[in-house]
Amino acid sequence: MRTFDFAPMHRATIGFDQIADMMDRVMSKDVSTNSYPPYNIEKTSDDGYRISIAVAGFSDADLSVEVKEGALLVTARKVEDEVERSYLHRGIATRAFERRFHLADHVRVTGASHEDGMLHIELTREVPEALKPRQIEIARASSVTKDVVDAKAVN
Fold it and tell me: What's the whole-model pTM score?
């Protein structure tokens, strides 16, 4: 895989640090990234989103959802029982995980719920009024009367 050096772009741009950082993150990701736990991202409305993460085997106390520095961080740490268990087959993974989602500007986490082995995180995009498109009213030209000068009177 080719790697690109975006250092010249950092020197030639002002105010685009987030774009450069995002490009660095995308280009530096390993192809064999961890896929545990599985998750879905769905669009629930024009400005609403939901992230659903399969967290079978974890209780509410084991899960943590945190927003920090423009990223949503979901972590889970399973507290092991003191009871010794003997498994014939262990197919439900309850290993600790950390899943990070980078949030776009003006995206806010509005809530989280845990039911039926799924952690649902609700997100809303709230664009400030100053950034929303606005319609500019076009004023009609006022009827200005122009003084007509008679060409014979000037000459």
Answer: 0.65
